[in-house]
Amino acid sequence: MLDQITPLLLTYNEAPNIGRTLDQLRWARRVVVVDSYSDDATLTILAGYRNVSVFQRRFDTHAQQWNFGLLETGIETPWIMALDADYFITEAGADELRALAPPPDVAGYSANFLYCVNGRVLRGSAYPPVTVLYRRAAGRYQQDGHTQRIELHGRVLALGTPIMHDDRKPLRHWVSAQERYMRLEAAKLRNASWRSIGWADRLRRLRVVAPFVMLAYCLFIRGGILDGRAGIYYAFQRTFAELMLSLSLLEGDLFGRG
Questions:
Q1: What is the tens place of the pLDDT at every residue in 180-221?
Q2: Of 123, 122, 118, 218, nearest to 169 (Cα)?
Q3: How far is 215 from 209, CA to CA, in rounded Å?
Q4: Closest to 161 measured CA to CA, from 257, 241, 95, 64
């Protein structure tokens, strides 16, 4: 089925990641990359791959960027594989894609992830499954807080092979991104009704609980403490992100800033 799939990726200053990701997509006849005007070495790296088509668009929202890639870049294959620039498809994953024979009522496939810190695979993480493979005609993106959600008409099955998540951009880049993301998440939580959100977002709405729950979850329930410095690094990252979300919510409470 590989010849029926076009990988679709978004990039902005992904030089530490994109080459490693594209090396594992050489099976694809065409890879479409929507770049938000990177000013590092990303475009130079992309130019080194003959199967990559690059389109540039100023970033506004994740959903708009993904829909542009889906609808306006000339993709003709019936299936899309939507990947972040730090997602890494293993050989086993490519073999599973090659052997897929989707029934007509299946609109997509979700994947679990193995979270990595500088190449070291962690025992567990808070990273959720993501729908990464779907029929081009069946999907459109909607904005969901700081990120996007694919809406599909049909069944979604689970792939058996996990995808590697290995972001090697520097910490300062991650912190800058989280500040933007958590403001969007805070706006989403303020506007959502209590009944419409899950238990995790209900904990976040309490302001003071989620950071401590996340630290315990990553270190002890997911086994991060056994991964040494890599596991502690990841647990502190996720706790810091939750603290930023709590601060954004408290800022709105105290100063009326949305």
A1: 999 999 999 999 999 999 999 999 999 999 999 999 999 999
A2: 118
A3: 10
A4: 95
Contact 48, 54 (CB under 8 A): no
Residue numbers of the domain that contains 104: 2-165
d(CA 14, CA 246): 28
Single out the residue of 186, 91, 124, 111 nearest to residue 156, CA to CA: 111
Number of domains making up the chain:
2
pTM of the model: 0.95
Claim to verify: residue 64 and residue 96 sit in the same structural domain:
yes
- pLDDT bucket at 110, cuts 50 / 70 / 90: very high
The residue written with tokens 């647990």 in the block is 235
Rounded CA-CA distance 3/66 in Å is 21
232: tokens are 């502690």
Q: First CA to last CA across the chain, in angstroms?
A: 46
Share of the chain residues as helix, strand and coil, in percent rounded to the nearest 5:
45, 25, 35
